[in-house]
UniProtKB/TrEMBL annotation:
CDD domains: cupin_HutD_N. PANTHER family: PROTEIN VES. Gene3D superfamilies: Jelly Rolls. It comes from Pseudomonas sihuiensis. This is HutD family protein. Pfam families: HutD. It comes from the Bacteria.
Length: 196
């Protein structure tokens, strides 16, 4: 899996674990894993109604809103966290009881999950226009283009690639300096995934 394109229009759609909606599974490891035994999983989901998150004990999760007006997360400790499109990223344990309340209409989200003690991840949002350098020291790097325009990226060993709007790419063992280029203002979610 040196370079795997993630296209939500061709990926597998399936029900949420709790049956409250549907999710598009962009990538999962191992490839034949299910929702109970994956090492890591990347998905997007359409959220059209308020409701509780599925329970994933032993899983670390990161969640970002890709489209729509946003969602308010009610955390188990009573705290509320507002997620807006192209904004803050929520990080939480899969066993935490969290409910989602839509602000104004449906949203589409990006969801990363890694099994605690097996893999770990971090998710950040880059905003830029022009050229941007990106250092990578992770085994697996996720780039998700949340902007309406395609962008270009150059791998550490050379070779310029195109990443279409609203799609992603998984890069395995591409440590080093990547170069990102875009003529338009860009929004790129970047996740570094490491064993352990």
């Amino acid at each position: 899996m040196p370079c795997t394109l993630l296209d939500p229009t061709t990926a597998r759609a399936m029900p949420w674990k709790n049956g409250g909606g549907s999710t598009v599974e962009l990538a999962i490891s191992p490839a034949d894993a299910g929702l109970e035994d994956f090492a890591w999983r990347i998905s997007t989901a359409q959220v059209a109604v308020d409701g509780a998150f599925s329970s994933f004990p032993g899983i670390d999760r990161s969640l970002a809103v890709l489209a729509g007006n946003g969602v308010c997360l009610q955390r188990a400790d009573g705290q509320r966290e507002m997620l807006l499109s192209g904004g803050a990223i929520a990080v939480f344990g899969g066993e935490e009881a969290i409910s989602a309340h839509l602000l104004d209409g449906p949203i589409t989200d990006l969801n990363l999950m890694t099994r605690r003690g097996v893999w770990k991840h971090e998710l950040q949002l880059l905003e830029w226009q022009g050229e941007q350098a990106l250092q990578n020291d992770a085994e697996i790097l996720l780039l998700w283009n949340a902007a309406p325009e395609a962008l270009h990226y150059q791998l550490p060993e050379g070779g310029q690639q195109v990443l279409a709007a609203h799609s992603g790419v998984l890069l395995e063992n591409e440590q080093g300096r990547l170069t990102l280029e875009s003529d338009q203002p860009s929004l790129l979610y970047v996740s570094r995934m490491r064993r352990g």
